Protein backbone atom coordinates (compact mmCIF):
# COMPACT_ATOMS: atom_id res chain seq x y z
CA UNK A 1 0.00 0.00 0.00
CA UNK A 2 1.35 3.44 -0.93
CA UNK A 3 1.69 6.07 1.74
CA UNK A 4 -1.62 7.97 1.99
CA UNK A 5 -0.80 11.53 1.08
CA UNK A 6 1.36 13.88 -0.92
CA UNK A 7 4.90 14.84 0.02
CA UNK A 8 5.32 18.26 1.66
CA UNK A 9 8.80 19.79 2.03
CA UNK A 10 9.83 22.11 4.88
CA UNK A 11 12.57 24.70 5.26
CA UNK A 12 13.23 26.94 8.27
CA UNK A 13 13.03 30.73 8.16
CA UNK A 14 13.67 33.37 10.79
CA UNK A 15 11.92 36.05 8.69
CA UNK A 16 9.06 35.19 6.30
CA UNK A 17 9.28 38.56 4.51
CA UNK A 18 12.93 37.93 3.65
CA UNK A 19 12.03 34.38 2.61
CA UNK A 20 9.28 35.70 0.36
CA UNK A 21 11.72 38.06 -1.34
CA UNK A 22 14.02 35.11 -2.07
CA UNK A 23 11.70 32.20 -2.80
CA UNK A 24 8.98 34.21 -4.59
CA UNK A 25 10.72 37.29 -6.03
CA UNK A 26 14.13 35.77 -6.81
CA UNK A 27 13.41 32.08 -7.47
CA UNK A 28 9.97 32.77 -8.96
CA UNK A 29 7.97 30.26 -6.92
CA UNK A 30 4.21 30.80 -6.61
CA UNK A 31 2.65 31.62 -3.23
CA UNK A 32 -0.07 29.18 -2.24
CA UNK A 33 -0.72 30.55 1.25
CA UNK A 34 0.73 32.97 3.78
CA UNK A 35 0.03 32.72 7.50
CA UNK A 36 1.80 34.27 10.49
CA UNK A 37 3.66 30.96 10.87
CA UNK A 38 4.49 29.88 7.31
CA UNK A 39 4.89 30.92 3.72
CA UNK A 40 3.61 28.10 1.53
CA UNK A 41 4.81 28.00 -2.08
CA UNK A 42 4.61 25.63 -5.03
CA UNK A 43 8.09 24.13 -5.12
CA UNK A 44 7.63 22.71 -8.62
CA UNK A 45 4.74 20.37 -7.93
CA UNK A 46 5.53 19.80 -4.26
CA UNK A 47 4.18 22.01 -1.51
CA UNK A 48 7.04 23.81 0.21
CA UNK A 49 6.29 25.17 3.67
CA UNK A 50 8.76 27.85 4.68
CA UNK A 51 8.19 27.73 8.40
CA UNK A 52 8.88 30.55 10.84
CA UNK A 53 11.29 29.56 13.60
CA UNK A 54 12.92 31.51 16.46
CA UNK A 55 16.39 30.39 15.37
CA UNK A 56 17.84 27.77 13.09
CA UNK A 57 20.83 25.49 13.35
CA UNK A 58 23.51 25.41 10.66
CA UNK A 59 23.29 22.01 8.99
CA UNK A 60 26.10 22.20 6.45
CA UNK A 61 24.22 19.86 4.12
CA UNK A 62 21.52 20.26 1.50
CA UNK A 63 18.06 20.62 2.98
CA UNK A 64 16.16 21.25 -0.26
CA UNK A 65 16.90 20.69 -3.93
CA UNK A 66 15.44 20.73 -7.42
CA UNK A 67 16.05 18.52 -10.46
CA UNK A 68 16.72 20.35 -13.73
CA UNK A 69 17.29 19.10 -17.27
CA UNK A 70 20.11 21.64 -17.85
CA UNK A 71 22.22 22.60 -14.84
CA UNK A 72 24.35 25.14 -16.74
CA UNK A 73 21.30 27.03 -18.01
CA UNK A 74 19.65 26.92 -14.57
CA UNK A 75 22.80 28.28 -12.89
CA UNK A 76 23.08 31.07 -15.48
CA UNK A 77 19.42 31.97 -14.96
CA UNK A 78 19.69 32.00 -11.17
CA UNK A 79 22.93 34.00 -11.28
CA UNK A 80 21.14 36.61 -13.41
CA UNK A 81 18.63 36.90 -10.54
CA UNK A 82 21.37 37.47 -7.97
CA UNK A 83 21.84 33.95 -6.62
CA UNK A 84 25.45 33.19 -5.65
CA UNK A 85 26.61 29.60 -5.90
CA UNK A 86 28.83 27.88 -3.36
CA UNK A 87 32.25 26.43 -3.99
CA UNK A 88 33.54 23.68 -1.75
CA UNK A 89 37.23 23.13 -1.15
CA UNK A 90 38.42 19.82 -2.55
CA UNK A 91 35.50 19.45 -4.98
CA UNK A 92 36.21 19.80 -8.68
CA UNK A 93 33.48 22.29 -9.68
CA UNK A 94 33.19 23.71 -13.19
CA UNK A 95 32.51 27.30 -14.32
CA UNK A 96 28.83 26.81 -13.42
CA UNK A 97 29.80 25.74 -9.87
CA UNK A 98 28.69 22.25 -10.87
CA UNK A 99 30.27 19.17 -9.37
CA UNK A 100 29.95 15.88 -11.26
CA UNK A 101 29.21 12.84 -9.12
CA UNK A 102 30.68 9.44 -10.04
CA UNK A 103 27.36 8.45 -11.68
CA UNK A 104 27.45 11.58 -13.91
CA UNK A 105 24.89 13.63 -11.97
CA UNK A 106 25.84 17.33 -11.85
CA UNK A 107 25.08 19.32 -8.68
CA UNK A 108 25.39 23.00 -7.74
CA UNK A 109 24.66 24.48 -4.30
CA UNK A 110 23.54 27.86 -2.99
CA UNK A 111 22.22 29.40 0.24
CA UNK A 112 18.86 30.93 0.93
CA UNK A 113 18.91 34.17 3.00
CA UNK A 114 18.81 32.16 6.24
CA UNK A 115 21.84 30.00 5.42
CA UNK A 116 19.92 26.88 4.40
CA UNK A 117 21.88 24.94 1.78
CA UNK A 118 19.81 24.45 -1.39
CA UNK A 119 20.81 22.64 -4.56
CA UNK A 120 19.93 22.02 -8.16
CA UNK A 121 20.98 18.85 -9.92
CA UNK A 122 20.97 17.44 -13.43
CA UNK A 123 20.68 13.65 -13.51
CA UNK A 124 23.15 11.76 -15.67
CA UNK A 125 21.99 11.05 -19.21
Rg result? 15 Å
Low-pLDDT segments, ≥5 res = none
Look at the helices and sheets and give the structural class. Answer: alpha/beta
Q: Walk across the major sheet and give the strand order.
A: 1-4-3-2
Order of helix and strand elements from N to C terminus: EHEEEEHEEE
Query: What coarse outline follows from CA principal-axis ratios?
Result: globular
Measured between the Cα atoms of the first and last residue, the distance is 31 Å
Number of strands: 8
Overall average residue pLDDT: 95
Portion in strands: 25-35%
Q: Mind describing the biggest β-sheet? A: 4 strands, mixed
Number of helices: 2
Helical amount among residues, as a percent range?
10-25%
Describe this structure in words.
With 125 residues, this protein is an alpha/beta fold. 17% of the residues lie in helices and 34% in strands. It contains 2 helices and 8 strands. The strands form 2 sheets. Strands 1-4-3-2 form a 4-stranded mixed beta sheet, with helices on one face. A 4-stranded mixed beta sheet has the order 5-8-7-6. Strand 3 and strand 4 form a beta hairpin. The radius of gyration is 15 Å and the shape is globular. The model has no long low-confidence stretch (mean pLDDT 95).
Amino acid sequence: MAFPGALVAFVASTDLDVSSMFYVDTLGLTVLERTPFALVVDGGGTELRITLVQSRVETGYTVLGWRTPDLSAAVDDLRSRGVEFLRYQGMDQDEHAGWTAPDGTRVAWFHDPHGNVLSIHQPSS
